[in-house]
Amino acid sequence: MTTVWAGLATGAIYSLIAIGYNIVLLASGTFNFAHAQLLMVGTFLAYTGAVTFGLPVLPTVLLAAAGVAVIALIEERVAIRPLLGRTDSHGTLITTVGAATILDGLAAAIWGRQPLTVPPVLPDEPLTLLGGTVRPVDLALIGFTLVVGVGLHLWSRHTLTGLASLASAEDRDAASARGINVRLLGVGAFAVAGAVAGVFGLLVGARTYAVFDLGHSLALFGFVAIAIGGSGSQLGGLIGGFATGLVYAFAARYIGAAYPQIVVFGVFLLILFLRPRGLFGAALERRV
What we know:
The protein is mainly alpha-helical. Helices cover 72% and strands 2% of the residues. It has twelve helices and two strands. A two-stranded antiparallel ribbon has the order 1-2. Helix 1 packs antiparallel against helix 11 (234-254), helix 2 (35-52) crosses helix 9 (201-208) and helix 2 (35-52) packs across helix 10 (214-229). The radius of gyration is 19 Å and the shape is globular. The relative contact order is 0.21.
């Protein structure tokens, strides 16, 4: 059971990346490859608030959430908005990759290249639960990720703003013609995704450390999670992230530390062969 808890805690981080991808994708139709870097910046801002400034937990979380939200808004204004409406749909993908590279460089320049220890917000003494040991911070990470993922899924399906986001992602021109402010939805999606990444910076940093290249591996496994669960599905991204973490943990435990990535991408390819749109992705129809 200890392996299960470790896999769920790691998978929660992958789920957060997939959730961030989907927030922006559903509202603006843009895939933000820099979202993992936003979470990385959130861990550094959490370190700055908790260690450098010595702030309590709540002000530290608010600092990280506000800081990452502002960075996400800057990314949307500089890297995304000038390309919206153009026929080349790959332009925004390239610019978000560029934004991720810039954030990596800025983090290394500001905080250095050595991993920084983010203090845990909860007691670090492991607990025995359901026959396995788990740290309280890992339980909090799993629980809050479930709450956010399920909450966003319900919001996107049962609120006017959520349904408007789905309509905007499906057809921006048609949604705009029906009176939906697609630009405001896109800006709001970046701000919300950034704020969520910042809020979790303290919990993620307590598990992974704050290090400038954290975004690389998180982006990769977050993409696996969203591909397994299905792009555009918050519930799919949530389950895909936890599934990815469990596969990784069990592969490391029973096959060897050198093989988890191979096993994860083997499962990833198998699912893509069987269900190209993911486990929870819906097939698209188009009149020709």
